[in-house]
Structure formats: structure tokens, C-alpha cells
Amino acid sequence: MKSDIQKQIPKLNFAVQSLLEKVNNDKFLRIEGANVSDILCELNTLEGDMGEVVVKKKNIHRYQKTLDMGMVEPFNNVEDAKVLLSYHVRLWTAIHEWNENIQIW
């Protein structure tokens, strides 16, 4: 069991790094000419991926503590990616709402 957990750590670190790279994409900062619906759809997908990563992180932490495996892997990038993703979601949701309200006015 401990060896399985040890094997999962690098895989999860790779998944977190990949997710962080996707969240750091410049297209989330370029509003000019962007398709807001497509961006929100992609962000929604990234939020789903983020949820899976967070669950895996919690499971690994739980197993590391339960099996007394020593130092618990911090997975620091998870929180960074989560915060940045939440900022992008709020920004693009606000842009979407603004565009809808402008049409109504």
C-alpha cells in the first residue's frame, strides 16, 4: 500500500503542474476578441479537473498520515492553481454577466 501511495505522488505532482500550466494560459487574460462562452466552458472543465486533483491530494494526505509515512507531501501548486483558477472564473463570469446586461439595457 505504501509503495502505491509513493507511486501516486509524482503522478499527482505532474497532473498539478499540467493543470497549473493550463490555468496560466494567456488566453484567460486576453478579453479582446475572446469568445466568452468558450472560455467559460473551458474554465468549467478546468474546475472539474481541479476538483479531481483536490480529492486525490486529500486521499494521499490521509493515507500518508494513516500509514505513518513520515512527511506529508505538500502539493503546494494545488493551492496556487486553485486560487488562480478562481480568479479567472470570477473575471470571465463578470464579463459574461456584463455582456448580457449591456444587451438588456
Briefly characterize the structure.
With 105 residues, this protein is an all-alpha fold. The protein is built from three helices and no strands.
Could you please describe the fold and organization of this structure?
The chain has 105 residues and is mainly alpha-helical. It has one domain (2-104): Methane Monooxygenase Hydroxylase, Chain G, domain 1, CATH 1.20.58. It is 78% helix and 0% strand. α1 runs antiparallel to α2. It is elongated, with a radius of gyration of 18 Å. The relative contact order is 0.17.
User: What is the name of the CATH architecture?
Assistant: Up-down Bundle
Percent of residues in helices comes to over 70%
How many separate helices? 3
Terminal-residue CA separation: 60 Å
What's the average pLDDT?
91
In this structure, how is the largest beta sheet organized? Answer: none
> Over the alpha carbons, how many angstroms does the gyration radius reach?
18 Å
H/E element string? HHH
How many structural domains are formed by the residues?
1
At the fold tier of CATH, the topology name is Methane Monooxygenase Hydroxylase, Chain G, domain 1
CATH class, anyone? Mainly Alpha
Q: What is the total tally of β strands? A: 0
Low-pLDDT stretches: none
Give the class from helix and strand content and strand pairing.
mainly alpha
Strand fraction equals under 5%
